[in-house]
Amino acid sequence: xxxxxxxxxxxxxxxxxxxxxxxxxxxxxxxxxxxxxxxxxxxxxxxxxxxxxxxxxxxxxxxxxxxxxxxxxxxxxxxxxxxxxxxxxxxxxxxxxxxxxxxxxxxxxxxxxxxxxxxxxxxxxxxxxxxxxxxxxxxxxxxxxxxxxxxxxxxxxxxxxxxxxxxxxxxxxxxxxxxxxxxxxxxxxxxxxxxxxxxxxxxxxxxxxxxxxxxxxxxxxxxxxxxxxxxxxxxxxxxxxxxxxxxxxxxxxxxxxxxxxxxxxxxxxxxxxxxxxxxxxxxxxxxxxxxxxxxxxxxxxxxxxxxxxx
Amino acid sequence: xxxxxxxxxxxxxxxxxxxxxxxxxxxxxxxxxxxxxxxxxxxxxxxxxxxxxxxxxxxxxxxxxxxxxxxxxxxxxxxxxxxxxxxxxxxxxxxxxxxxxxxxxxxxxxxxxxxxxxxxxxxxxxxxxxxxxxxxxxxxxxxxxxxxxxxxxxxxxxxxxxxxxxxxxxxxxxxxxxxxxxxxxxxxxxxxxxxxxxxxxxxxxxxxxxxxxx
Lengths: 310, 214
Prior knowledge:
Chain A has helices at residues 4-7, 13-33, 46-50, 59-77, 108-116, 171-175, 201-205, 249-252, 259-262, 280-287; strands at residues 82-84, 94-99, 129-134, 157-162, 181-183, 189-191, 212-213, 228-230, 242-243, 269-273, 290-292, 304-308. Chain A is of the alpha+beta class and 310 residues long. With 214 residues, chain B is α+β, with helices and mostly antiparallel strands.
């Protein structure tokens, strides 16, 4: 007579132990596979998750969002920033002009921009790329990007800093599937970092290599953080969103010149309101004769003009 | 019995497989991010907005040492210094002014001190059109010979305007000629460039992306 223990269809002691060993190790494997979630520190808060589209927010809602951002930055860096939502001014359209006769390719603008706009230091994100080209050539594909001579300028070459051209007809805006990037009335194409889904269509659409993607979490030493911030400007970005030059919104919409201009030792960079006939950009577009708008044949109509002193 | 043996073999196998998975997930030998190249922070000198030199006006403002500009500490009033030239008509710089490097224009075309300084009053400049200017007010002096550049400077195309573009928000500053040009040797000196981008493919000319992209 068989004992009920050995051949009953129910549970006996041995098979219970065996099954639970399998179950336990299976659960352990599951738990371990979820372990990376422990490192997820910037999990969006409920408010952030429910935040409205930039253009639909009331001033009160915006004020709350700005407070939340200040709080988040303080939590991460231990420093309280001043975050503003600066809007375009009436009667202002920004234009940039860059004197190629003057530029010596020293790259001070690149690093002043990184410092002003809280760009990641490692991995390196830079909005400005200084191209080195032989005299008489404008073949950007042949330009050198990381030349490192002992001294600049070098005989026989000229230098062309390229950044977002703030097009009147921006291809990047057209391809954004969620309207996270758009052109404002003062001509600046902005990005709402809280709305961007990181699909990188805009990066592919831009003919000027102006857009940068945060593949990893940006890394900025706390003591290098610029605490004067703007919502559509230099507030810290997160992993998985696009960023690019925004003509230093936090400065220019407060009436100041952009950081790249202020640091230029030769005075090659010019910025201002093209609707003001007395601005220096108006003077330049009126009096200088040789201009280049990069890849103008693409119909982008850049607000960034390169000129020669002749 | 053989059924029992089979079950136990399968269950032991499963347990081992799960334990191996647990170990793999925890140790994570494949999923670690690649070690990043170390990128040093840029030298803060490259972030300085200062111009390449300080003008007399700036030195006054900063209450710096002004002895170089105190001409009559050495010279005698009413006794203009005499210029001496070598056999090639090149100006000889006296040892007391050895810190001056002269080289204004190709072939030193504008090296004559009294094209700018007033021989009868060393503490001022004289322009070609007969105006007298203070030593701290040299920009119109430059303008008196460099008309087109001066017009560009006034329009904001030459030199550097800074501060506020919007005069309603603050002051627009305009750098003077001698903050960028040494009046005696005005050619702009070369300088070391700031570090370039850390490209992933340094040879690929068109690769616009840095390490961030991969």
